[in-house]
Specification:
By secondary structure, the protein is of the alpha+beta class. It has 2 helices and 6 strands.
Length: about 120
């Protein structure tokens, strides 16, 4: 199951997106603007995890909230369903993003963290 985290960063969208894309954008990225002129973007990252012998894929959804706040939704998936360390692997890769943001002086604030992210479907 995916690992999900929702983070607030008190910085401009442009600064956050540029830093994250330079570091994590090894698959693809896309940016656009909402009808009320707020920027948003997606960055897709893939890394090989030697411990689990599988790829970890991270999706970053960035949303400009105002001139000095950017929200980031991060979803991490690991391709090896057999891995005994799957949850720990995904948590390590999610936390590495938080460490990156801290090291970039962006002071992330975690708003939500769901280690077993699953959409509930109701009738």
């Amino acid at each position: 199951m995916p690992y999900y985290m929702y983070v607030k960063v008190n910085s401009t969208y442009r600064r956050v997106f540029t830093l994250m894309n330079e570091t994590f954008g090894n698959v693809t990225f896309e940016e656009s603007m909402t009808s009320d002129s707020k920027l948003y973007g997606i960055i897709i990252n893939q890394v090989w995890d030697e411990d689990t012998k599988s790829f970890v894929i991270r999706f970053f959804f960035l949303m400009e909230r105002n001139e000095s706040r950017t929200d980031i939704k991060i979803i991490a998936l690991e391709g090896n369903e057999e891995s005994l360390f799957r949850r720990e692997c995904l948590e390590r890769y999610i936390n590495s993003v938080i460490d990156f943001l801290k090291n970039s002086k962006l002071e992330p604030i975690i708003l939500e963290k769901i280690p077993y992210f699953k959409r509930e479907i109701e009738d």
